[in-house]
Amino acid sequence: MDFTTKLRALVGRVEAGLDRYVPTPDTRPAILHAAMRYSLESGGKRIRPVIVLATAEVFDPAARHDPLPAAVALECLHTYSLIHDDLPCMDDDDLRRGRPTVHKAFDEATALLAGDALLTHALGLLLSAYASEPALAAAMGADMAEAAGSRRLIGGQVEDLAAEGRTDVPAADLEFIHLNKTAALLELAFSMGARLGGASEHHRAVAIGVGRDLGLAFQIVDDILDATAESATLGKTAGKDAKAGKTTYVSTFGVDGARRRARAHADAARDALRSLPGDLAFLVALIEALTDRKK
Ligand code: GRG
User: Fold this and answer.
1) Domains and CATH numbers, the chain
2) CB atoms within 10 A of CB 77
3) Is the CB of 181 under 6 A from ligand 1?
4) Which residue in 38, 60, 120 sits closest to 279, CA to CA?
5) Which of 14, 47, 48, 82 has most ligand 1 atoms within 8 Å of CB, for mutation?
6) 3-state class of 95 per DSSP?
7) For the whole model, what pTM was predicted?
8) Pocket-testing residue among 14, 74, 81, ligand 1, by greatest number of atoms within 8 A of Cβ
9) Which residue in 194, 190, 196, 188 sits closest to 64, CA to CA?
10) Three-state DSSP class for 211?
């Protein structure tokens, strides 16, 4: 199966899983569940859940657990972070995934609570869907709490907000922000995929390293697209970083320097990936596609 066909098939599985594992929009209180689904169903590239599914497939089929609930849980977690990031008290954005942000389509309190509910749902889904495998459920729950917690996703967001309007942010601090705001959830995707595929601890550590480099490449490309692409293409507001006076890879290294750094991290991710067993063609192609993406 070629890359695009396989990607479409995996995205289709994720979207069917979202429909299956997230409460229906008429569940009481309907406004909350409608807001959760509004954001989840707005599209999005589904990269993180696709990585969970594709990584689990790389390992021994006999040792494999159904990766779909974990993939859905991760997309719920990621979507919560986007809803909260768009709120007026954070990035204050009107456009996400090509549609009005949740606080614009509903209201601020509903957006805040929809994000809270998606985060809680993510952990609850992991614990309930893998209840018959308590060690696996506990390990993935702990991984998720760590990646989403104060030292990683939220820590990265806090330092990102603190860096706004500062033109003197050192490159090491920029890397801290990107490692935590962005790479943490990509590392989590590879880690959960490895656990679900029954990988050894050594192979899981390698997979996490792939997520780290891919996460950095992904965020550098995000910075480049913010500086060079149109809002209509991105489905979110472009040019926000320069307007907010933000230090990014583009403001620090220029567009060409940022491109070279993205390429180096993508190459490191691909080289590390090649030490895993199994058919890696899809994941190698995914790294390339994300590094060359236009939105
Ligand atoms: C609110 C705790 C909290 C964290 C927010 C997600 C986030 C951290 C900030 C959003 C802005 C941003 C540039 C985050 C870096 C990660 C990133 C590039 C997110 C967008 O991910 P995509 O491109 O989005 O995969 P889609 O919509 O395709 O799912």
Assistant:
1) 3-291 (1.10.600.10)
2) 23
3) yes
4) 60
5) 82
6) strand
7) 0.96
8) 81
9) 196
10) helix
